[in-house]
Amino acid sequence: MSQQSSPTVFSAGLDIMEMYKPKPDRVKEFWTTLQDVWLALYGSSFPTVAAINGHSPAGGCLLSLCCEYRIMCPNYSIGLNETKLGIVAPKWFMSSMLGAIPYREAELALTSGRMFSTDEALKIGLIDEVASDKADAIAKSEKFLSQFAKIHPIARKLTKLNLRHSALEWMQENKELDLNIFISFVGQPIVQKSLEKYLEGLKAKQAK
Ligand SMILES: CC/C=C\C/C=C\CCCC/C=C/C(=O)SCCNC(=O)CCNC(=O)[C@H](O)C(C)(C)COP(=O)(O)OP(=O)(O)OC[C@H]1O[C@@H](n2cnc3c(N)ncnc32)[C@H](O)[C@@H]1OP(=O)(O)O
């Protein structure tokens, strides 16, 4: 459950203003912080559930994909919509999605930057359950977690971390490479132009 300033947003993803005209003194910290959050959450030895009580685009969707189980409230949207911004979901965003939905669904979703409604997300397996509201999402999360009381904690932890091993190992070994890809990618004029257009679209939507 994220504690957000907007009651209808679980997480709006990365701050686009950090990628639009990025400041050289901030960009490294920005990206390595995200890498570290992913490593900590995706690689957590604890069982994790995302109670998604709001829209969850891109980085927001990624946060939920780090968890083993996703419960979402109705009438929100979720997905890795990066291509809609003219950017590319990094390899580890993609592998997080592939841990939840079949390759074919992921390919269609990622290439089109599709955002799914709660019901659509349930249908493809991007979320595991629908909750009627925030309290129900918390109750369902507790129910999911309580099943592990009967499972040996070391057996559960090693099983989870073995399943996630190759993605985690890739990141641990390639943090610097991944950072350099990010910096050179967002620095391209064509990418900056796309982000500018996307931001204009957000502002125009808000002005309506
Ligand atoms: C080979 C190459 C390999 C690798 C490439 C490397 C790197 C590139 C990949 C980087 C990965 C990126 C991940 C991301 O997370 S990108 C961010 C994606 N997020 C979005 O698209 C969300 C956009 N926002 C919305 O859809 C809506 O705002 C939302 C969240 C549904 C809420 O809607 P609503 O309540 O109606 O609010 P408004 O739309 O009116 O927005 C209010 C206000 O917030 C600003 N805003 C919204 N989201 C963001 C954001 N993510 N960053 C910055 N600002 C945001 C919006 O513009 C409004 O601002 P204002 O100042 O006008 O109040």
From TrEMBL:
Signal peptide from the UniProt entry: none
Biological pathway: Lipid metabolism; fatty acid beta-oxidation
Lineage top rank: taxon: Eukaryota
Main location per the UniProt record: mitochondrion
Compartmental location: Mitochondrion matrix
Keywords: Acetylation, Fatty acid metabolism, Isomerase, Lipid metabolism, Mitochondrion, Transit peptide
GO annotation, biological process: fatty acid beta-oxidation
GO cellular component terms, A-Z: mitochondrial matrix
GO MF entry, a single one: delta(3)-delta(2)-enoyl-CoA isomerase activity
Reaction(s) this enzyme catalyzes, per UniProt: (3Z)-dodecenoyl-CoA = (2E)-dodecenoyl-CoA; (3Z)-octenoyl-CoA = (2E)-octenoyl-CoA; (3Z)-decenoyl-CoA = (2E)-decenoyl-CoA; (2E)-tetradecenoyl-CoA = (3Z)-tetradecenoyl-CoA
Any matching Pfam family: ECH_1
Assembly information from the UniProt record: Homotrimer.
Cited function: Key enzyme of fatty acid beta-oxidation. Able to isomerize both 3-cis (3Z) and 3-trans (3E) double bonds into the 2-trans (2E) form in a range of enoyl-CoA species, with a preference for (3Z)-enoyl-CoAs over (3E)-enoyl-CoAs. The catalytic efficiency of this enzyme is not affected by the fatty acyl chain length.
PANTHER family: ENOYL-COA DELTA ISOMERASE 1, MITOCHONDRIAL, ENOYL-COA HYDRATASE-RELATED
Protein's name according to its UniProt entry: Enoyl-CoA delta isomerase 1, mitochondrial
Species assigned in the record: Cloeon dipterum
